[in-house]
Structures are given as structure tokens and as C-alpha cells.
């Protein structure tokens, strides 16, 4: 790990985090489509079933996106002031949209964590320390191995959502089989938490119209893609070299998750962004 400290400019940005929001909105968009969709960072997702035990140690990383090993910016104590931008109202049935970014000028990004195979006990502690919400997308096996762990991960906000029961490629399945995978997993979550999350992410980020219809049939109101990823303790961007307001950030329950979240905390602080609950931006009809 690098121990490089932030640049003068970065320190100034972090100082600004405590008081003055410095971020102005860049170009923002929301993806809503009814055809086949393939996540652009699906190479990251495609290896998620592999238990990677060495990748974090063996990769040489650029220093600019790494969190320092010893110091993180202080937790924000700013009173919540959002959502104040446009809030999307989306249907709770029918072919629900696929969303890779939230169209908002609010200085927020969203942390999403998939699968569940490696359950690092430091992760819920870190999220609690920094009061960070996390939106989880879990599969049956790892979720049922320790449902309480995932409840602790979402103790500071967020939700636990379906990522299908068995992590199969949905576009190879019939509509009814997709529904069993998507809605069956939501039912399982509902046996352990009071309210299962109303979002869905497709395995490998690959979905089609049948996926969107199946999700809408059981109370899910959006299929989430992503616009940035966290791997090996660094932030990887799909656009430019910074996070964009409204970005949905994808990472996984792997052995690099703790370092990944630290990297996101650090990069967000540098940019004056807050890691916010995406559920506030995608409410169910009738909610707030
Ligand atoms: Zn996955």
C-alpha cells in the first residue's frame, strides 16, 4: 500500500468538506432502457465468484486513488441536506428501468456491494464509524450463511436486496425462471429483515426486458447498474478521472472490500461528495 499523503490541493478539498460544498454538477444522466443491457464494467463482476486471496497484495496501484494507510478524513457531521435535486418516481410494476446513475446535482455518490462470499468483520465497523449507508445485493448461499452480518453492514442505512438466488446469467433463463431467481431471493431476505430492499442488480450486470418485468412483478422498482467500481483498494471510473455526482459505485464482498471502502471514503472527501443512501433517490411510489 502506498502511504502517499494527499496533495496540497487535496487537503484543501478535504478542508472544504467540513464547511463549504465545492462541487458543481457535471453532466448527469439516467439510463432507462427496455432492451438487453450489459454493464460496462462487467469484467469486474465476472470474476466475483472467484475467491481472490492474493490480488490485493500483488497488484501495483497508482497512488492517486488510494486511501492512505493511516489517516482518513474525519466523518462528516454535516446535517443531511438531500435529496434536494430531482427525485425519480418510477413504477413498482411493469418493466422497471435499468439505472446506472442518479440524475441529481446533489453532491452524493452511492455505495453498492454485491454477492457476500467474504464477510470481513472490519467492514460493518468502518461503515458505522463513518456513518455510511450501503446498498447490498446478495445471493442465497452467502446471505443465509450469516444474515446478521449483512444486517450489521446496513446498520448505518441502505438496504439488503436481491442479486438472484444462484447468480446465474439471467439472459439464458426463461421469464418464469428469472422471476424465481429474482423474486425468490427477495422473499428469502424478507424472512430475515423487516423490509427487504426494493432494488435489484443482475448477476454480471446482464439483464433483458424479461428481467425488468420479473423484477417489477415482486415489488422491485429499479434494476441497478453502476458507473464506477472499487477494486484492489482503488476507485475505477467509467467516465473521466473523478467520481461524478449521482454515481452508483459497485464493489463486492471480497477480501479487498475494506480497502475499497476506505478508497471511496477518501476520494469522496477529496471531491466534497457524501456517500448517501440511494434509497432516498429511488423511493417506492407513496414514500416520502
Ligand atoms: Zn454478483
UniProtKB/TrEMBL annotation:
Residues of the region (Disordered) are: 59-80
Q: Name one GO molecular function term.
A: hydrolase activity, acting on carbon-nitrogen (but not peptide) bonds
- Alphabetized CDD domains for the sequence: CE4_NodB_like_6s_7s
Looking up Gene3D superfamilies in the UniProt record yields: Glycoside hydrolase/deacetylase
NodB homology domain location is: 107-288
Record-linked SUPFAM superfamilies: Glycoside hydrolase/deacetylase
Q: What processes in GO biological process is this protein linked to? A: carbohydrate metabolic process
Pfam families per the record?
Polysacc_deac_1
* PROSITE patterns the record matches: NODB
Quote the biased-composition stretches of kind Low complexity, using this chain's numbering.
Answer: 59-70
The record's annotation in InterPro entries points to:
Glyco_hydro/deAcase_b/a-brl, NODB_dom, Polysacc_deacetylase_ArnD
What is the name of this protein? Answer: Unannotated protein
Amino acid at each position: 500500500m502506498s502511504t502517499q499523503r494527499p496533495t496540497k490541493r487535496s487537503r484543501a478539498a478535504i478542508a472544504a468538506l467540513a464547511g463549504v460544498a465545492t462541487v458543481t454538477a457535471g453532466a448527469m444522466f439516467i439510463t432507462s432502457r427496455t432492451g438487453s443491457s450489459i454493464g460496462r464494467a462487467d469484467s469486474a463482476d465476472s470474476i466475483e465468484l472467484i475467491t481472490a486471496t492474493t490480488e490485493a497484495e500483488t497488484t501495483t496501484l497508482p497512488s492517486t486513488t488510494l486511501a492512505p494507510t493511516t489517516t482518513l478524513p474525519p466523518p462528516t457531521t454535516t446535517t443531511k441536506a438531500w435529496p434536494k435535486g430531482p427525485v425519480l418516481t418510477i413504477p413498482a410494476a411493469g418493466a422497471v428501468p435499468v439505472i446506472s446513475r442518479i440524475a441529481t446535482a446533489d453532491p452524493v455518490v452511492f455505495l453498492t456491494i454485491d454477492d457476500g462470499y467474504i464477510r470481513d468483520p472490519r467492514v460493518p465497523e468502518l461503515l458505522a464509524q463513518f456513518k455510511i449507508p450501503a446498498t447490498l445485493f446478495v445471493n442465497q448461499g452467502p446471505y443465509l450463511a450469516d444474515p446478521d452480518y449483512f444486517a450489521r453492514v446496513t446498520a448505518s442505512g441502505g438496504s439488503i436486496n436481491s442479486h438472484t438466488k444462484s447468480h446465474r446469467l439471467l439472459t439464458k433463463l426463461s421469464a418464469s425462471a428469472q422471476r424465481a431467481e429474482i423474486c425468490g431471493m427477495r422473499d428469502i431476505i424478507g424472512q430475515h429483515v423487516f423490509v427487504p430492499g426494493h432494488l435489484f442488480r443482475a448477476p454480471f450486470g446482464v439483464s433483458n426486458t424479461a428481467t425488468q418485468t420479473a423484477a417489477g412483478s415482486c415489488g422491485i422498482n429499479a434494476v441497478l447498474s453502476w458507473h464506477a467500481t472499487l477494486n484492489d483498494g482503488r476507485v475505477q471510473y467509467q467516465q473521466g478521472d473523478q467520481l461524478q455526482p449521482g454515481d452508483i459505485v459497485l464493489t463486492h464482498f471480497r477480501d479487498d472490500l475494506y480497502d475499497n471502502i476506505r478508497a471511496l471514503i477518501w476520494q469522496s472527501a477529496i471531491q466534497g461528495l457524501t456517500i448517501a443512501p440511494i434509497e432516498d433517490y429511488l423511493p417506492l411510489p407513496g414514500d416520502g
